[in-house]
């Protein structure tokens, strides 16, 4: 298998400007058409280019192991859940991956899909029931609030989502478990980092190659959960 992003890009594809298309929409379309990860996802049957972010992080840090239980927050369209199910050996007979999103998500083998907003008050309990009362080994969160275009506001929103995901992770993770969540650069997650460093043996920022260089997104990776207080 070729390395991520390797291979010939081919001629640069241009998107003709439609009469009613905004310049920002045209830039997004051009970027999609010329993104090697988008092309690779289509060729290899991945649900989204985002799948390669988890693949690259896992190839480096070995988070996903056979037999583990995984919770995927903000899962649609299912790229991360699909990768997790394959790597932990989840099946319909013995599902080990639970995914949640308020957006529609097509079924995946070995994945229990909950159509629900993770921020709903009863969402954590539904996730726990879907785990069968068992602890999880890994909590994933690729959640992101709709962007406003105001960097400080967008950063605060995604940090709030990450804090909610981290609080849930502390409730369900088994000792030694891991937490991986998307954040944006911004410098206001000091409290979040301090809390994670208290509860996990190692906390680091990760930016996989599949994360576009011009994107402000980073991933917080916390490993070696010390157990609920």
TrEMBL record:
<comment type="similarity">
    <text>Belongs to the class I-like SAM-binding methyltransferase superfamily. RNA methyltransferase RlmE family.</text>
</comment>
<feature type="binding site">
    <location>
        <position position="78"/>
    </location>
    <ligand>
        <name>S-adenosyl-L-methionine</name>
    </ligand>
</feature>
<dbReference type="InterPro" id="IPR015507">
    <property type="entry name" value="rRNA-MeTfrase_E"/>
</dbReference>
<protein>
    <recommendedName>
        <fullName>Ribosomal RNA large subunit methyltransferase E</fullName>
        <ecNumber>2.1.1.166</ecNumber>
    </recommendedName>
</protein>
<dbReference type="GO" id="GO:0005737">
    <property type="term" value="C:cytoplasm"/>
</dbReference>
<keyword id="KW-0489">Methyltransferase</keyword>
<dbReference type="InterPro" id="IPR002877">
    <property type="entry name" value="RNA_MeTrfase_FtsJ_dom"/>
</dbReference>
<keyword id="KW-0808">Transferase</keyword>
<keyword id="KW-0698">rRNA processing</keyword>
<feature type="binding site">
    <location>
        <position position="101"/>
    </location>
    <ligand>
        <name>S-adenosyl-L-methionine</name>
    </ligand>
</feature>
<feature type="domain" description="Ribosomal RNA methyltransferase FtsJ">
    <location>
        <begin position="47"/>
        <end position="225"/>
    </location>
</feature>
<feature type="region of interest" description="Disordered">
    <location>
        <begin position="1"/>
        <end position="31"/>
    </location>
</feature>
<feature type="active site" description="Proton acceptor">
    <location>
        <position position="182"/>
    </location>
</feature>
<dbReference type="GO" id="GO:0008650">
    <property type="term" value="F:rRNA (uridine-2'-O-)-methyltransferase activity"/>
</dbReference>
<feature type="binding site">
    <location>
        <position position="80"/>
    </location>
    <ligand>
        <name>S-adenosyl-L-methionine</name>
    </ligand>
</feature>
<dbReference type="InterPro" id="IPR029063">
    <property type="entry name" value="SAM-dependent_MTases_sf"/>
</dbReference>
<feature type="binding site">
    <location>
        <position position="142"/>
    </location>
    <ligand>
        <name>S-adenosyl-L-methionine</name>
    </ligand>
</feature>
<dbReference type="Pfam" id="PF01728">
    <property type="entry name" value="FtsJ"/>
</dbReference>
<comment type="function">
    <text>Specifically methylates the uridine in position 2552 of 23S rRNA at the 2'-O position of the ribose in the fully assembled 50S ribosomal subunit.</text>
</comment>
<keyword id="KW-0949">S-adenosyl-L-methionine</keyword>
<feature type="binding site">
    <location>
        <position position="117"/>
    </location>
    <ligand>
        <name>S-adenosyl-L-methionine</name>
    </ligand>
</feature>
<dbReference type="InterPro" id="IPR050082">
    <property type="entry name" value="RNA_methyltr_RlmE"/>
</dbReference>
<keyword id="KW-0963">Cytoplasm</keyword>
């Amino acid at each position: 298998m070729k390395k991520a992003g390797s291979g010939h890009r081919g001629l640069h594809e241009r998107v003709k400007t439609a009469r009613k298309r905004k310049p920002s929409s045209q830039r997004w379309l051009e970027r999609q058409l010329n993104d090697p990860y988008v092309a690779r996802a289509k060729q290899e049957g991945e649900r989204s280019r985002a799948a390669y972010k988890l693949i690259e992080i896992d190839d480096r840090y070995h988070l996903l192991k056979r037999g583990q239980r995984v919770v995927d927050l903000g899962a649609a369209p299912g790229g991360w859940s699909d990768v997790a199910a394959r790597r932990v050996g989840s099946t319909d007979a013995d599902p080990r991956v639970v995914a949640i999103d308020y957006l529609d998500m097509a079924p995946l083998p070995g994945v229990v899909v909950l159509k629900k907003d993770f921020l709903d008050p009863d969402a954590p309990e539904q996730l726990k029931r879907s785990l069968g009362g068992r602890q999880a080994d890994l909590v994933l969160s690729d959640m992101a609030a709709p962007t406003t275009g105001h960097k400080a506001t967008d950063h605060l929103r995604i940090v709030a989502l990450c804090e909610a995901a981290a609080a849930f992770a502390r409730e369900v993770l088994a000792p030694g478990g891991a937490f991986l969540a998307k954040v944006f650069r911004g410098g206001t997650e000091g409290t979040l980092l301090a809390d994670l460093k208290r509860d996990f043996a190692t906390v680091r920022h990760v930016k996989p190659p599949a994360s576009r260089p011009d994107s402000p997104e980073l991933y917080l990776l916390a490993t070696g959960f010390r157990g609920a207080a």
